[in-house]
Design a protein that fits this description.
The protein is an alpha+beta fold. Helices cover 43% and strands 12% of the residues. It starts with 37 loop residues before the first helix and ends with a helix.
Length: 424
């Protein structure tokens, strides 16, 4: 079959069959919306979205049938003529093939009840752990009401339950699903796409965000208008393209290595802040979790402890200098970690904790102590608001700290930070 002879330019809507929906025919009647009010526009948008879902499902079914006749490569070649890039075309061809195993799900997509993206998530999960008919129907019902991000988590939980007897932990199952792609995208750009298990992903995020935060600080000083996404991209380039650690590299001078398998990429130092409960009755650790609350298996914790710096989130244990008074101005590493565990982000704008500094609520110059109770996390921009624009750290009735906009004086002067007298 010569697929090259078939293009969007030489096919017409008449080739689809019936003009109205039914008997396998699909057609869309486009209404003039120039004089519609907001309410009617919303109705029309919902109708258009339903029609789009139906057409997506119908198109996937057509591609699946073509795959039966000509193979998946032929489907991918045809999808390229939709104007899709190679990666998207391959993804659509794969979805068309895998959804044949879930005809009820495909029918729900064709009827417009669920999106083709929801259906694709189900088919990928079905390939790893087969769904029963009852489980498939339950997921279709949930797909109608849940957005795609929420639905992915729902499907992942169900998959874990279906695979509960395979002897693997959730971490190991996630690791099985890891993938990475590097390919040419649009306009000669290179695209990276990867998925990792949660622990590996957190280590990667830590490394990327650590370098991105340093770039953020540099930008704040230099006044650069580099965006967050550009800093992330620059951080990835720096981390990925670091040179191998070779026996031939001495004193910082580049010397050609011998090409042996001993040459290794220098790993990024990684610190994971974890919290672990200790059951005094049975003498065991339990309820391990990352700083954002994600639970991890105790065995996984022991494994990653071999090659990652594990820092316990301890607030006031013996040996942790969290209350220094006026002994020193700079916070200790223990205080910074305790602040990260407590505040979790900038109390002003929500910037992630790793990009923030410790700020004295009662300023050090006004005899404020370097105690954990007098410290708070602020990003560089919010820190500047406090010191230059008169913003103050306030505590809400529920104990949550936040930035409070300054009150202008009658002279128009900016108020200074809080003092012991003002705080009292």
């Amino acid at each position: 079959m010569d697929l090259g002879a078939l293009t969007r330019g030489n096919t017409t809507q008449d080739d689809l069959g019936q003009k109205s929906r039914g008997s396998g025919g699909v057609a869309v009647e486009l209404a003039d919306f120039s004089d519609l009010n907001s309410g009617d526009l919303v109705k029309l948008i919902l109708q258009a979205d339903s029609a789009r879902r139906q057409l997506d499902g119908y198109l996937t079914a057509l591609l699946g049938r073509l795959g039966d006749l000509e193979g998946e490569d032929a489907v991918e070649e045809l999808c390229r003529q939709f104007g899709l890039g190679r990666h998207k075309a391959r993804q659509q061809a794969k979805a068309a093939g895998s959804l044949k195993a879930l005809p009820t799900t495909l029918e729900a997509a064709k009827e417009g009840w669920i999106s083709i993206d929801h259906a694709r998530v189900m088919s990928e999960s079905h390939e790893r752990a087969p769904l029963s008919q009852a489980e498939e129907l339950e997921l279709i019902t949930l797909a109608i009401s849940e957005d795609l991000d929420q639905f992915k988590k729902t499907v992942a939980r169900g998959e874990d339950q279906r695979r509960a007897d395979d002897g693997l932990t959730r971490q190991e199952r996630q690791r099985e699903r890891r993938s990475g792609k590097v390919f040419d995208g649009d306009d000669d750009m290179v695209v990276l796409h990867a998925e990792f298990d949660r622990v590996a992903g957190d280590r990667i995020k830590t490394a990327v965000h650590d370098l991105s935060d340093r770039l953020f600080r540099d930008d704040a000083k230099s006044g650069s208008n580099r965006t967050h996404e550009q800093r992330i991209a620059d951080a990835l380039v720096a981390l990925i393209t670091q040179r191998p650690e070779s026996p031939g590299t001495v004193g910082g001078d580049d010397v050609q290595g011998d090409g042996s398998e001993c040459d290794e990429i220098v790993p990024q130092a990684t610190t994971l802040i974890v919290s672990v409960d200790y059951d005094t009755l049975c003498g065991q650790l339990k309820s391990a979790g990352l700083i954002d609350g994600t639970p991890i298996d105790i065995e996984d914790l022991r494994h990653i402890a071999c090659d990652a710096g594990i820092v316990p989130a301890i607030f006031a244990a013996d040996g942790q200098p969290l209350y220094l008074g006026r002994k020193q101005r700079a916070v200790t590493a223990a205080q910074k970690l305790a602040l990260i565990a407590r505040d979790k982000q900038c109390v002003g704008c929500g910037m992630r904790a790793s990009a923030c500094d410790a700020h004295h609520i009662i300023w050090w110059d006004d005899d404020g102590p370097t105690d954990i109770t007098n410290l708070v996390l602020l990003c560089p921009k919010c820190h500047k608001k406090v010191h230059k624009q008169g913003y103050q750290v306030a505590t809400s009735p529920n104990g949550q700290r936040q930035l409070k906009r300054p009150k202008r004086s009658s002279t128009g002067e900016q108020p200074r930070g809080p003092t012991r007298t003002a705080a009292a």
